[in-house]
Specification:
Number of helices: 5
Strand content: under 5%
Structural class: mainly alpha
Distance between the termini: 61 Å
Number of domains: 2
Number of strands: 2
Strand order of the largest sheet: 1-2
Oligomer: single chain
Largest sheet: 2 strands, antiparallel
Helix content: 40-55%
Order of helices and strands: HHHEEHH
Radius of gyration: 23 Å
């Protein structure tokens, strides 16, 4: 009888340990995969500490200093090559008749011939190789947040992979547009967020970001 009990202990003990190990490893992977936020995304931790705005309530990006050897850093564009640019058509006072109105961005979106030509130039500047389809010629400050539609300073060939990539940024853009249009945050703050570090918001909101 004692021998059977000892055999059970010898078998059950390692199985319990294995179960706890797999559970812990699974949670660790989930945390890494989705970057579950440890802070409220509406707290100051999620926003830039300071940024400049103009009299119309728009973010003022730093000036671009174009060069032939741009570098992506931690999934973000080179701020000297792609600091972002804002549209003169959108102000804090007219957001409800511009970016918050359905169909507005279609009216100002540049042609594919323009963006494809710019994409080829910027792929070379960033030193990206591989098929052009692996990249999205992206507005750093998107049109739905009042980004300039044609300024090269507001474009970069954003990789689709690795995660988070260009398609994940789309969710952040939609999330911030909702927050601007419902008055949660001002236009300038959303523009500063997306221009300086959109990945931070992606991590802060966590898996719920895909709902936007």
């Amino acid at each position: 009888m004692k021998l059977k009990w000892r055999l059970r202990q010898a078998i059950i003990g390692p199985l319990v340990f294995l179960f706890i190990f797999l559970l812990t490893a699974g949670f660790g992977y989930f945390f890494y995969k989705y970057k579950i936020a440890l802070f409220n995304p509406t707290s100051p931790l999620a926003w830039p500490d300071s940024f400049k705005t103009d009299s119309a309530g728009r973010y003022i990006p730093p000036p671009a200093t174009p060069k032939n050897n741009c570098s992506m850093v931690n999934g973000l564009p080179d701020p000297s090559c792609t600091p972002g640019a804002v549209s003169r058509l959108v102000t804090q006072n007219n957001i409800q008749s511009t970016i918050c109105t359905k169909g507005f961005t279609k009216k100002i979106r540049p042609s594919y011939s323009y963006t494809n030509a710019l994409k080829r130039e910027q792929l070379m500047a960033y030193g990206f190789d591989g098929p052009t389809s692996d990249y999205e010629e992206d507005h750093l400050i998107p049109l739905e947040l009042g980004g300039d539609p044609v300024s090269p300073a507001n474009f970069w060939p954003e990789p689709l992979k690795p995660w988070p990539g260009a398609l994940d940024k789309d969710h952040v853009e939609n999330y911030l547009k909702v927050k601007v249009c419902d008055g949660t945050i001002p236009l300038s703050k959303a523009q500063a967020i997306i221009a300086t570090n959109w990945i931070r918001i992606y991590q802060a909101v966590g898996p719920a970001i895909v709902n936007y």
